[in-house]
User: Which sequence fits this backbone?
């Protein structure tokens, strides 16, 4: 499942969302509930326009990892749909990160949630934190989740400082 999930991530980054979803499903067939696959599958669902599936996948992932975060996700969803779910999840992760930066998640995870919720300033703030923290996931700035940030000069500066294309 590990290798199949990385293959799915590659397909996702190539913007082949339907193929990525099939590969993530293959990983989950090999290992049902595999956290690494669930942690990435939801983004392919979003990119493919399948927000209900994305929400269900996020719920599955967070129910295994941190049930309290799953409750935040559900409360946000009830309040303001999928965007609300992303925002409350991001705010919960910010609080956890503030209390203990040695979490299993990274500032890029927070930035991605804010980016997908179209909270540009917050997303860029957390990408800058990720850069300063030397978050190893900064190498994934080409993820589709950041597409809406690409024209922002702050995003371009981050890409340039990492020698990455901003396209």
Assistant:
């Amino acid at each position: 499942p590990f290798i199949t999930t990385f293959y799915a991530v590659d397909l996702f980054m190539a913007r082949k969302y339907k193929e990525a979803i099939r590969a993530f499903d293959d990983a989950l067939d090999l290992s049902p509930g595999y956290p690494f696959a669930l942690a990435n599958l939801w983004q392919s669902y979003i990119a493919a326009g399948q927000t209900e599936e994305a929400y269900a996948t996020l719920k599955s992932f967070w129910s295994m990892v941190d049930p309290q975060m799953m409750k935040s996700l559900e409360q946000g969803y009830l309040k303001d749909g999928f965007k609300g779910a992303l925002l409350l999840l991001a705010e919960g992760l910010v609080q956890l990160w503030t209390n203990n930066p040695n979490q299993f998640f990274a500032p890029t995870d927070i930035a991605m949630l804010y980016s997908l919720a179209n909270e540009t300033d917050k997303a860029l703030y957390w990408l800058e934190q990720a850069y300063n923290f030397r978050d190893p996931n900064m190498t994934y700035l080409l993820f589709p989740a950041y597409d809406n940030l690409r024209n922002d000069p702050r995003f371009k500066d981050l890409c340039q400082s990492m020698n990455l294309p901003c396209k």
